[in-house]
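hey so i finally got around to running the thing on that chain from the lab meeting. sorry it took forever, my laptop kept dying and i had to restart like 3 times. anyway pasting the input first so we r on the same page abt which one it is
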Amino acid sequence: MVVEFPPFRADLEQARLWREGQVVPLRRRTWEVLRYLLSRPAELVTVDDLVGAIWSNAAVQDAVVTNCVYELRRALADDRRKPRFIAAVHGQGFRWVAETTTIDPNQAHASGNSIMQLPSLSSSTGAEPDVELQRLRARWALACCGQRQVVFITGDSGPHMTSLVSRFCASLDEFSPLIIRGQCREAHREPYAPLLDALARVGSGPIREVFRRCAPTWLAQMPSRPAGRKAAERTTRTASKERLLRELAAAFATIADRGALVLVLEELQWADPATLDTLSFLIRRDASARMLVVGTYRIAAATGHSRLVAFANDLLARSGVVEIALAPVPDSASGLRRKPR
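ok and heres what got predicted. didnt touch it at all, straight out
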């Protein structure tokens, strides 16, 4: 069922909020608050009602509920003093005050709201559009809708692939996703090295707090870790592979629940087996997630990496996994010089 309250539409089956063809990102709990309010238009909804329906009467502070309402108001650009959608009833709760219309989901999808619409990236000077960049952004749009996506970028030039990834990440600035970006290195093949490289760039703040709660073993290996370092290192040495996989998956799921997540690992032809196993585990998870995984590798170098070839071919048979094969780059454009034959 799709509920319309202009300029918004809420697809209750797909758990998506749209505004004029673009997805409005919401945390899962915030979405559930919206869904509950929409199911009871004009009715008084108390904090206890929300806790019972959404948190199953768990011990939740009122501030957690009101924060979800605050996030929802901000997403709807709703003024608390002159509400168009959510009115506060002092000392009692909240009330949905906007008029709503239920429309046929097929009609909503036909109007273009089934996929997030992104601005065109063609040049204002009339240049040809960046097709590869458009394909990447289309996959990111699907990820924003909760459909886990994977893109393998292949080619013969590392700098060419890196340039595409950099343009893609820069093009998302207006949407402020979390981008975790790391690189495999030929001379540095310790287990999980590119993942740790990526996580080391995250910095401090809320993301580290997520890892402290969900993935303490990974946090112990990251630079500038908090107090308790020796105990954390002991945990790292004794942690099983299964625990490492579960922790990282839980941390990424928590992050993706707050907003779209982009994980980029470049030069996978030099990836260690543990990193490939971890990527496979993250990609194969059945649960939906607002997550896009981008991996790059050079075709020529990958031919000698039988594990990577098998890994990529196996995953490319899955839904939501695609390859973007870049055309060969002329020597003058790549900045590389080939040895004479």
